Amino acid sequence: MGSLLQLARWGLLGRSLSLVQTARSLHCGVASWIHVKLPPEPKEVDRWTEKRALFGVYDNIGILGDFQVHPKDLIIGPSWLRGWRGNELQRCIRKKQIVGHRMFDQDYKNLNKRIRFLYRRFNRTGKHR
Fold first, then answer.
1. Could you give the C-alpha distances from 76 to 47, 56, 73, 83, 129, in angstroms and in order?
2. Which residue has the higher pLDDT, 81 or 88?
3. What's 101's DSSP letter?
4. Are 108 and 116 spatial neighbours (Cβ–Cβ below 8 Å)?
5. Is 0.85 topped by the overall pTM?
């Protein structure tokens, strides 16, 4: 067997070199140049987070409530955001219109500054021009 390996090393056997080395390395347990990638470890997932636990909670409103109540009416949040969509400038303007008279002076001033900044930004840049 030793002379066969010497011939293979010298290149006299051509392609049989790789077969002999593979068979020998696997048989002898030496696999330093063969790299087998292990599958990743499974992740620990909390199946009862609040988001997962309440998923689809309003799906049966129409069936049980005879389609009288829309899920957007059941959402708890600020009054100026319930069932409404828009960008930040529109949201700030809507907040000023709805609850501006009840805001503290500093909060109202900061809201006006934010509206002025966003107004300039939207008019100078972006697809809104």
1. 24, 16, 8, 10, 35
2. 88
3. G
4. no
5. no
